[in-house]
Input
Amino acid sequence: MSAWLPVAPCTPQACARHTGAARSPLPALLRLLAGCAWTLLGVACALPVRLLPAPARGWLVRRWARGVPRTLGVRVTVRVHPYAPGSAGELVVANHISWLDIPLVASVLPGRMLAKSEVGRWPLLGRLAGLGSTLFIDRDRLRALPGAVDTVAAALRAGSRVVAFPEGSTWCGRGSGGVFRPAVFQAAIDAEVSVRPVRITYGTAGAVAFVGDDPLAASLWRVVRAAGLTAEVDVLAPIPAGARAYVPASGGPGRRSLARAARAAVVGTDLTATARAAVDQTAVASDRANRPAASVHH
Output
């Protein structure tokens, strides 16, 4: 049992499979090699990029992150809420289906990722995560929880954008997913920053689902073999931490109510028809202004 979230019920045998059109092995292998090469480029450039000013660094990170799904053959659509410009010093929260979620969010709102400590030991990707100033947490030790919250709050106060997946585990994407655990939202309240919900959906969730004890290599191969994969990233309006106007009537202000409000935004249950239509509009924002761009990545 994790201090942040119980294990999701999704398993590779039941959830992680693709039944649609498939690429032949050779084109799939070329996609995989291109993805690995692009990742290696990110590792090689990570240290020099950290020395650049924040606007240039953010621009390069977004460009690199967009290339990850592109090289693997995933077509990505990004929709930004028309009244939701990006900013530093905010907590970004999203639903969690796959390792692909990480570059998808980084392609729009690059920031310091909050990840379990095991990720730091992954080959290549763990190295890249460390160079990207990822905040690693030990989810299996309840005593470490207050310290982890304090670390996230300190990063937010310092003006960093922190990206978290508060479901705490990946879910297959075929249902509504898991609840948002409240611990990380306490950091936003302590730092008095807004929470930015992000909704991630895949056209074929089974191909990208990375759940349970699914090996990373098997997941990568499943993604490059699946033809016509699509992903959609909806960047929603920010929620001021602790603002009663955004708290469900059934609960008072606090981290649990904030977590429920963020999850409702991601699931879409708090949107009226008018608001839902507004979110679906594509807003083009300038990279020069350091805002997330609404676009389609091929």
Notes: The first helix runs from residue 12 to 15. The chain has a mean pLDDT of 77. The beta strands are 75-80, 91-94, 112-116, 135-137, 162-164, 194-202, 230-235, 239-240, 296-297. The two ends are 39 Å apart (CA to CA).
